[in-house]
Amino acid sequence: MEGELAFILKDPLKGPGVTIADVYRATEGIMPAFEIVDSRIRDWKIKLPDTIADNASSARLVLGSRMVPIKDLDLRLIGMVLEKNGEMVSSGAGAAVWGHPAAAVAWLANKLAAFDIALEAGEIILSGAVTAAENASAGDVFTVSFYGLGSLSLKFI
């Protein structure tokens, strides 16, 4: 489980030259999210080519229920708390993601430009994990809370 910020795009982003300001202009809002990480590679003995072949070890995405407009948010300073079974297991701030979560989105848009691919309106872009991933097992309940954005809970069955 990884707690992340989800960017909901209202306008396309196409590099090269996409900046954090461009990401803010193209984003309708931000939502708390979980990325459920998984891999088909046994024992996580994984290298970059394996990660690419494994779709970046991303299995699922779960979004919060409320989108907050991005215009007044300083995403570097947004705090996140991750709980597992009612106990805090990690915490961090948005700045843990590339110094600014929107910088990660800008990087992606610029990287995809080499393949003539744009990030399109309506797409959901995850910023990357604010803290290290936590293992999940059947029965575990996770809650991620972002200051000013709300919380999201998920139970594994």
Automatic annotation (TrEMBL):
Gene that encodes it: tesE
EC number of this enzyme: 4.2.1.132
Pfam families reported for this sequence: FAA_hydrolase
Species classification: Bacteria, Bacillati, Bacillota, Clostridia, Neomoorellales
Organism: Neomoorella thermoacetica
Gene3D superfamilies xref list: Fumarylacetoacetase-like, C-terminal domain
Ranges of residues in domain Fumarylacetoacetase-like C-terminal: 1-153
InterPro entries linked: Fumarylacetoacetase-like_C, Fumarylacetoacetase_C_sf, Hydratase-Decarb/MhpD_sf
Single GO molecular function: 2-hydroxyhexa-2,4-dienoate hydratase activity
The protein's name: 2-hydroxyhexa-2,4-dienoate hydratase
PANTHER family: 2-KETO-4-PENTENOATE HYDRATASE, ACID HYDRATASE
Keywords: Lyase
